[in-house]
Write a structure and sequence with these properties.
Elements lengths: L3 H13 L12 H9 L18 H15 L3 H20 L2 H13 L4 E4 L15 E5 L2 E12 L6 E11 L2 E10 L5 E4 L12 E12 L3 E2 L5 H16 L1 H22 L5 H29 L4 H28 L5 H15 L2 H17 L1
Parallel strand pairs: 1-4
Antiparallel strand pairs: 2-3, 3-7, 4-5, 5-8, 6-7
Helix pairs in contact: 1-3, 3-7, 4-5, 4-6, 6-9, 7-8, 7-9, 7-10, 8-9, 9-10, 9-11
């Protein structure tokens, strides 16, 4: 298992040294292989299957270190998806046969995995998802389209969430492991995304795509809660790591750029930056608590209030940081590009955050 110091050194030697990562849309397969060789792609996977068995706390710390010292969000986003889908979806819901078949190669970086939930024009709303899996010949036939798939273009495995029936007028969803290549499975470009490079995004189309019966992940009809809802919560918690590392890096770059600008810092700007620094420390405490509770099996009601506070600060940080940079006349292309990616990452899943906030408000008002 790599230590935090070794992760920081890897980030300096292999990520920050490659200035083209944030500009080049091509995925750096050599860097991915190096991450696998260094044990980074198996941090969250079980030792029995070639991983390090890291918990959510360690994954948050690793994500923060990779961003702060690597100075790139995109490759860390891809790293995070590999670890989170491997640990919390395939590792927890998969059969032992499925875990033995896939997890060791995921840990080594010889396989890449992507979670396929969202659909074109439908987003991730369960009511609107239409990809369907129909039982046939001892297996299933998948039909539908998925988009906004992080790691989609490089994935060898897709965890596809599809409708497998209805109960009481509600759709029932199941998860399936779909290997590439497979007849009926086609990779498509999907929506154009020109940020968070070099993390690749794409889509898949499935037409009469037959998969064996043992490709089902977990119990039939369980994917809405076990994969869709739970994974969104897990991802939001663990993404606090890259956000923490990014905010620390932003303040570090601001200090270096300010010394070059020659603009005097007024009390108001110093107060704002002090508040941002203190807020980062607060988010770190919240992240540690959330990670501990997450791996302890805490439910949405326990996790959401603290998560909303932490993610709200991350969003407000970007607004305040941009205003300070403008007042101090900071002109640093590297900082500008990184901050643009930070704003995008902070804003992801904003609709889900607002829905959680509304739900919490209604619960409070109803007493």
């Amino acid at each position: 298992m790599p230590t935090l110091a070794e992760i920081e050194r890897f980030a300096v030697d292999h990520i920050s040294s490659r200035s083209e990562l944030g500009a080049d849309p091509a995925f750096p397969h050599d860097l991915w292989r190096a991450m696998g060789q260094a044990g980074l792609l198996g941090l969250g996977l079980s030792p029995a299957h070639g991983g390090s068995g890291c918990d959510a706390t360690a994954l948050i710390e690793a994500g923060a270190a990779l961003v702060e010292h690597g100075r790139n969000l995109g490759i860390v986003l891809s790293w995070s998806v590999q670890n989170l889908v491997g640990r919390y979806v395939l590792g927890q819901l998969g059969s032992e046969t499925q875990r033995e078949r896939y997890l060791p190669d995921l840990a080594r970086g010889q396989l890449a995995i992507s979670l396929a939930v969202s659909e074109p024009g439908m987003g991730g709303s369960p009511k609107r998802l239409s990809t369907r899996a129909t039982a046939a010949n001892g297996g299933y036939v998948l039909d539908g389209e998925k988009t906004y798939l992080t790691n989609g273009p490089i994935a060898d495995l897709f965890v596809v969430v599809a409708v497998t029936g209805e109960a009481d007028g509600l759709k029932q969803f199941s998860g399936f492991i779909v290997e590439k290549p497979r007849p009926g499975l086609e990779l498509v470009a999907g929506a154009h995304i020109d940020f968070l490079r070099p993390s690749p995004h794409g889509g898949i189309v499935m037409r009469d795509c037959a998969v064996p019966g043992d490709s089902m992940l977990g119990e039939e009809g369980s994917a809405l809660n076990a994969i869709f809802r739970r994974f969104r919560l897990i991802e939001d918690v663990v993404t606090l790591g890259p956000l923490l590392g990014g905010m620390r890096l932003q303040l570090s770059l601001l200090g270096a750029a300010r010394s070059q600008s020659g603009v005097e810092v007024a009390g108001e700007q110093a107060e704002t930056v002090g508040a941002l620094t203190a807020g980062i420390a607060g988010v770190a405490v919240l992240a540690e608590r959330l990670a501990h509770d997450l791996d302890g099996g805490a439910g949405e009601d326990d996790l959401v209030p603290l998560l909303l506070v932490a993610r709200d600060f991350c969003g407000r940080f970007q607004t305040s940081f941009t205003e300070v940079c403008a007042v101090l006349q900071i002109n640093d292309p590297i900082l500008d590009a990184f901050s643009a990616d930070m704003a995008k990452l902070s804003g992801l899943a904003g609709g889900a955050a607002r829905a959680r906030t509304r739900k919490l408000g209604l619960q409070t008002l109803r007493g």
